[in-house]
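Exercise 7. Given the encoded structure of a 261-residue chain, write a plausible sequence.
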């Protein structure tokens, strides 16, 4: 059983428990459920830098990244830095995140917020909407084509943008459909955790231009972004690079200033 299988098995138990505790009706009555969402896709299309900055305390591959930064400061800092959007990890067991992190981020900034989560059930999309997300992540490696279609269409009905993540050609072909907004290429091999930007380069030509292309994982330098831009990438998800400093917002600001020079 690889790490992804393990996470998904745990996630099914967790989601069943959450469903038994908080009924759908309660989520739909949340104050944030009716708010107008902010489109990450539009922001990325208009941006020079395309940075989606992440709040992440730890990960299975790196264990602890930073437990000291609070979400409120990080979100405000990212907004001041001029990022296009913020990704908030809401998985507790493996990444140390929670839905409360999403709520706090929503209260502290006007950025498009991505709920970074292992989505295996429509219920999680209702949670995302109720807790203030604007964008959801679907991971092709853990979903069938039918599930991708079902979840992405449901997300669109909630006015949420959809970022679909792929790791290889096979996942990409399985996943391309009109209900997606962005296609994210994860440069990290989920079986070995090795990272290579070649994954983004190789898959770029296979992604139709209707979708905004996003490159994820292993992007820690200006050079990496400049290397990927000619391949049509408009979005760059950066997590550990900013989070491992004492001031994620300041770190993002310096990075974006250097990138735009």
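Solution.
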């Amino acid at each position: 059983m690889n790490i992804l299988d393990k996470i998904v098995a745990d996630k099914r138990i967790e989601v069943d428990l959450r469903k038994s505790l908080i009924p759908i009706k309660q989520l739909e009555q949340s104050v944030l459920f009716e708010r107008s969402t902010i489109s990450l896709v539009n922001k990325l299309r208009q941006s020079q830098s395309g940075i989606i900055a992440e709040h992440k305390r730890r990960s299975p591959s790196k264990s602890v990244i930073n437990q000291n930064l609070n979400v409120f400061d990080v979100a405000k800092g990212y907004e001041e830095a001029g990022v296009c959007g913020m990704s908030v990890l809401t998985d507790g067991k493996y990444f140390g995140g929670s839905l409360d992190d999403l709520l706090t981020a929503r209260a502290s900034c006007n950025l498009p917020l991505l709920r970074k989560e292992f989505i295996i059930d429509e219920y999680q999309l209702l949670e995302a909407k109720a807790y203030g997300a604007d964008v959801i992540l679907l991971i092709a490696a853990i979903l069938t084509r039918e599930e991708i279609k079902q979840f992405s269409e449901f997300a669109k009905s909630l006015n949420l943008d959809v970022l679909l993540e792929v790791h290889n050609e096979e996942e990409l072909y399985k996943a391309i459909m009109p209900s997606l907004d962005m296609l994210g290429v994860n440069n990290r091999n989920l079986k070995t955790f090795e990272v290579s930007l070649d994954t983004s380069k190789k898959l770029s030509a296979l992604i139709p231009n209707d979708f905004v292309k996003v490159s994820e994982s292993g992007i820690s330098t200006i050079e990496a972004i400049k290397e990927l831009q000619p391949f049509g990438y408009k979005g760059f998800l950066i997590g550990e690079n900013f989070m491992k400093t004492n001031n994620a917002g300041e770190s993002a600001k310096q990075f974006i200033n250097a990138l735009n020079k």
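Remark. The mean pLDDT is 94. Students should compare their own answers with the one above.
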